[in-house]
Amino acid sequence: MLEKGGSKILPVVPQLIIPIKKALNTRDAEVVNTTLKVLQALVLSAEMVGEALVPYYRQILPIFNIFKAATPSTFDAIDYGQRKRVNLGELIDETLEIFETHGGEDAFINI
Questions:
Q1: Most buried pick, 26, 64, 66, 87, via CB within 10 A?
Q2: Which InterPro entries match (predicted)?
Q3: Residue 23 belongs to some domain of the structure
Q4: Do residues 50 and 98 lie in contact, with contact meaning Cβ atoms separated by under 8 Å?
């Protein structure tokens, strides 16, 4: 739906916030992982979607902090989860970078 939605995606963004927040609040790593990937796809799917999400950062971003702090450090070991994009800490970093890049002028301030 995100690939073919085009201009129809932007008006629906406010309705997506509550389900996204509920998914993140489950605190289940697999659900959060999938939600982060969907958020990335949502922002990249159409123009202005990133900017439309900025007012909702206060509802979405606090849960990122919980999982960001829980990222395991591997020191010198190899983390094979990077390739499959299952490392939540790195996925959160990616998502925040996409939010900042596509969120307009106010995105960085709100992050």
A1: 64
A2: Parkin_co-regulated_protein
A3: yes
A4: yes
Q: What share of the chain is helix, strand, coil (3-state, %, to 5)?
A: 75, 0, 25
Give this prediction's pTM: 0.76
Number of domains, the chain: 1
pLDDT in tens, 16-25: 899 999 998 9
Whether 28 is covered by a domain: the verdict is yes
- pLDDT computed for residue 18 by the predictor: 92
CA distance 59 to 108: 16
50: closest CA among 13, 19, 23? 13
- 111 domain residue, yes or no: no
- What single-letter amino acid sits at 104? G
Q: Who's near 75: CB < 8 A, 6+ residues apart? A: none
In a domain, 108, yes or no: no
What is the rounded CA–CA span in Å between residue 71 and residue 38?
20
